[in-house]
Design goal:
By secondary structure, the chain is an alpha/beta fold. The protein has helices at residues 11-23, 61-69; strands at residues 6-8, 28-30, 42-45, 52-55, 73-76. The protein starts with 5 loop residues before the first strand and ends with a strand. The relative contact order is 0.25.
């Protein structure tokens, strides 16, 4: 699901989220591990704009490694 980028269940928010990410100097995503690899209805941004993911220790290690390979810092709490 990495190729899908970031998605959301709220289409009305998707455009705004993507626009903000494109203009930000640094983008930090806070999401629990159950969201990793899940694809929702509306695309809300590209991984190329994401710098850091903060999540819980339950994230799939393979998924976290793929993010790291893309230059995204993964912080597990």
């Amino acid at each position: 699901a990495l190729n899908e980028g970031l998605t959301t269940t709220e289409p009305s928010e998707a455009f705004t989220k993507e626009l903000v990410m494109k203009r930000a100097r640094e983008v930090v995503l806070l999401a629990d591990s159950s969201k990793a690899g899940k694809v929702s209805f509306a695309r809300a941004g590209s991984l190329e704009h994401l710098h850091t993911v903060i999540t819980d220790a339950g994230i799939n290690p393979k998924f976290a490694k793929e993010l790291t390979k893309k230059g995204i810092k993964v912080i597990k709490t």
